[in-house]
Amino acid sequence: MTGKNRQNYNKNYLAYVNSFDPPTKHFKNCFRAFLVGGLICCIGQFLREILEKAVGMHGDELSAAVSVILIFLGVLLTGLGVYDRIGRNAGAGSIVPITGFANSVASPAIEFKTEGVVYGLAAKMFIVAGPIIVFGVLAGTIVGIVYLFL
């Protein structure tokens, strides 16, 4: 095949493939991502205000409590199958906040739990989120519990 024939073949092939692709709705996708990401952040701010005014938390303690609650909600919604539906409709709006991190750790762990605790649950949760992030959260939790009891 000569160079000119190959270019025509590539153009024809790309036109054929693109005829099956639905057109991407960039504005609609960006708008949904903005709304869902903003809603998650508003929920976080609402939790922050409640904990600050009702419980009297301040500073790092307040930030940590809000983060823990949002991570818990992300994992809970992932376990119930709700977060996946949110992600399908919201796209990047659901993965950017801290709840997206919780989803990225919990999803593989839930998916591979049938393979057993070590090879499924524990090993597969490191695939998406990365071992350093998961180990950092796990180590921070253990240190926090030890610090609580000392």
**Main sheet summary:** none
Return the average pLDDT rounded to an integer: 80
Count of discrete structural domains: 1
Helicity range of the residues? over 70%
Indicate the proportion of strand residues: under 5%
Number of DSSP strand runs: 0
Along the chain, the helix and strand elements come as HHHHHHH
Q: Can you put this structure into words, describing what you see?
A:
With 150 residues, this protein is mostly helical. It has one domain. Helix content is 83%, strand content 0%. The chain has 7 helices and no strands.
In short:
The chain is mainly alpha-helical. The chain has helices at residues 3-20, 26-55, 59-80, 82-90, 98-111, 117-129, 131-149.
Structural topology:
Blueprint (H helix, E strand, L loop, with lengths): L2 H18 L5 H30 L3 H22 L1 H9 L7 H14 L5 H13 L1 H19 L1
Helix pairs in contact: 2-3, 3-5, 5-6, 6-7
Characteristic terms for this protein:
83% helix, single chain, 150 residues, extended, mainly alpha, 7 helices
